[in-house]
Every structure is written in C-alpha cells, then in structure tokens.
Amino acid sequence: EEDVNEETILRTKRWIVILGDPGSGKTSFARWLVHHLAQTLLINGQYSTDYGLLRIPILIRIGEFAEILKEQPSLTLYDYIGKHKWMGKTILDNDSISLNYLSHALQDYIKQGQALIILDGLDEIPVSGQRSKIINIVENFVETYVQTPTGISAFDNPHLNRLFDNLSQSGGNQIIITSRIVGYHAAPLAGPS
C-alpha cells in the first residue's frame, strides 16, 4: 500500500495488484496507461527515460475473458490474448490485420518478454466457482510468462526478486492486475496449486 506514480511502478515492479473501491479509477487508470505507453512507444521506441525499458501494453477485461471461458472452458489466458475484446468490441478498428495475426504478434511479444499485461477487474466474476477457475488461470499465466530473467516468479520468496530483479535493466514481462479491495481479499492470488 504505497503511494507511487506510474513511472515508479513501470521501472521497479514486475508484478503489481492495484486495489481500489468501485469507481475509484482503476479501469480509467489502466486505459490511460495503455494509451500513454502506446504513444510513448511510437515516439521513443523501446526505451524511455521516465519508464525505463518499454513493453507492449495489452489490456484485458477479466469479465470478458470469463464470458468466453464459459463457451471455451479449456481456453488459456495466453491463447485469448490478441483475440480479446474491450467492452464487447474487437480491439482492431479495421480489417487490414487479421485477429490471428494480431494474436500471434502479441503472443510473440510475450514470449520475448516484451509485454505489459494489464488484467482489469479480477474480482468482477459473479460465480464463485468460475472465480476460482479464473484465479487459477491467471496464476498459471503469471507463473509461466511473468518471471524474472533468472526464473523467479511472483509466487516465490519476495526477497529473491528484490535481490535478482532489476526490472528497468533486465527486461521481461510485467503484469498489473486491478481489483476491488473486498473482492480481492476474498479470493487473492496465491500461486498455482
């Protein structure tokens, strides 16, 4: 529970959960951050003096992932990336790129450790059985794709990542998860079982 700005978060935190009350601006912040980082990438390339090493921002609404998961129960978060929607609309504004091409491109950024994945609304899944499934899917995604270059995950000893992770220099994926305070404490991320 620190009071930090987005530059500090992006330079120093590989894994972060942003908690807030309903209407406190979590989604607005996530959308602003994606827009701001995309513009910064276009202007500066992969490095910014304010943010350090820049990553491709990928914003996903967990509620929309949960809806698709009802139809495709074996879908992983990784496979959903690039095919995801925002507020029911495809993230492409024209037909010049196929969803498969976009999905593969974003997945390549993830494989190369060059993505900032923002999962918005972790707590906004109404059915508790589905909530635990989503939590497990997110934990597995983080364990697999959001590690330090030396293989330390968010669920390992926190002292290890402070010793061996210089995020602004080492690269690798980052993840930001937003949630309501009460919803998160009812079902927090704890690591894959």
UniProtKB/TrEMBL annotation:
Q: What PROSITE patterns does this protein map onto?
A: NACHT
Q: Which InterPro entries match?
A: NACHT_NTPase, P-loop_NTPase
The protein's superkingdom reads Eukaryota
**Positions of the NACHT domain:** 14-125
Protein name stated in the entry? NACHT domain-containing protein
